Every structure is written in C-alpha cells, then in structure tokens.
From TrEMBL:
Keywords: Disulfide bond, Repeat, Signal, Sushi. It comes from Serinus canaria. It holds the Pfam family Sushi. The keyword Transport does not apply. Residues 139-200 form the Sushi domain. Residues 1-23 form the signal peptide. This is Uncharacterized protein. Residues 28-136, 204-308 form the CUB domain.
Amino acid sequence: MEIKSGFTFWNLVFLLMVSCVKGFIYTCGGTLKGLNGTIESPGFPYGYPNGANCTWVIIAEERNRIQIVFQSFALEEEYDYLSLYDGHPHPANFRTRLTGFHLPPPVTSTKSVFSLRLTSDFAVSAHGFKVYYEELQSSSCGNPGVPPKGILYGQRFDVGDKIRYSCVTGYILDGHSQLTCIASSVNTASWDFPVPICRAEDACGGTMRGSSGIISSPNFPNEYHNNADCTWTIVAEPGDTISLIFTDFQMEEKYDYLEIEGSEPPTIGLSGMNIPPPVISNKNWLRLHFVTDSNHRYRGFSAHYQGTFKEINFNWACIS
C-alpha cells in the first residue's frame, strides 16, 4: 500500500509540474483580412508575456501583396524574436527573424499571404512591437521606408514614380540615391534597387560596382573585430544577375552572422564553419550585412562575386 500510495503521489506531483509548465505558454494571434490594420504584441507597450507563442496570418485579395511597417519594436535580443513568413507560417516560407531594439524597415510580401510569429522565452521581456499592415495593389511598390540617418524625398510609390535619398551630415550614402517603381514580369510592382543605407564615414562596408570582385570581412584572413556591423551592396549592370561564391567562411555559430538580401529566398542567414553554397541574385544587386557580437572572433569570410548576363530564351519556331 505504501509503495502504491507513493507512486500515486509522485505521479500527481509530475502532473502538477507539467500543468505549471503548460501554464507558461501564452498563445495568441489570429487571421486578419481587410485593406489595412494594426498588429500589436500582447500587452504592448507595457511588455509581452514570457513563454509567448503567437501567430498572425494576414490574407489579402488574390494577386495583391501585403506591406508591413513597424511603428515600434523592442524584443529581448537573441532570446525573443519575431519570425516573418512570405506566405503561411511554414519553414519553406521563412523570410527573416527580427530581434533587439532597432526599428526594422518596411517589409513587402511577394504573395497575398504574410505571417508573423512572436516567440519569447521564460525570462526577460521588453515593450514589444506595433505593426501597421496594408494591402498593396499590383501597381504599387509601397513605401520603402527611410534608413537610419537617412532622408527620403517623395511620397508617391506607384509604377513610374521616383524617390530620392540623402544622408545627414557625417554619413555616407551607400547604394542608389534614386529609386524607381517599375512593373515586374509577374504582374507586380517593385523598386528597381534596394533602399540605400547611410553609414558613418569611418564605418566598414560600401558599394561594389563592376563585373567582378572580392568581398571579405574586415581584417581577413586575420580575425575580425568584435561588435562589427558592416554592409556591402553589390550592383551589376541592368538586366544582369550576380553570382556570389564563397572561398572561406568561419564565424561563431549563431552569434556572428552574414545576412544576404536580393536572392531567392529574399533573405539568407549564414553562420558557422561550413563554406556556404553559391548565392545567385534575382535582380542586379545583392546586399551583405555582417554582424558580430562582443565575444569570440574567427577568420570571417571571403567571397568572389561576378555579374552574369541574364539570357532571354526565344522560341525561334514562333518567329517567321
């Protein structure tokens, strides 16, 4: 009897412990439809709960796209994060993961569905985020946003419209100062170049032009510096694509990383000790963002880039 009673007692304790752990999981979110709206993390702006697992799915009319604009953003860096999906929240649709205290730029979907997923741990919280979302017609590129220390000139974002950027004193503009909203081949509109960045005059990074070249992390092949934050933009001739081939790659796993924009998928995150496969742009530009933390240092990376003319295949049988 005592053994049986003891067994029952510890089973009860186990069940209570499981119930307590489950109680920490905070679920929220939902499906959103309509031309526009606002999404806030639970408890905003007074802090989201620990153990949050919240998913929002925004659905637009068929052939339209969705743009989200962050109005506020503060998540415990590296431990709490907001995952963005270009479609339903499935690994194949994963686009990027946001964390920290910097206000992210606007994000535009390529489809009529866009998803956000908030995940927090069981410790520190922050005030959370607030997002404005808007359904975009096929003829609109949407507001591309303003980079930190940047100035935007122009308030029209439809096909044919042009906007310009400049930087405040003490910062250099990297990228194209003028963007044009153009109609793409898939019946949607997009900006012809990425939003430029404004970097301090003594910061690493820059704009790379020409048919080919090499990009390396600062101090390569020696160890890179801690707390690095470098951005390079590679620009090829109109109509070309860019091939990026890595020849060396060594970074502290998860904490130091290289983020690449302008490819397919739209954003690629690289970290660790393995040489990544080649990256091919889907337009005539690529942007590389290299970030390190305050701890370990490694060799970094080196990559060769080359512009490649995009061939157009004609059906000669139809030409007579």
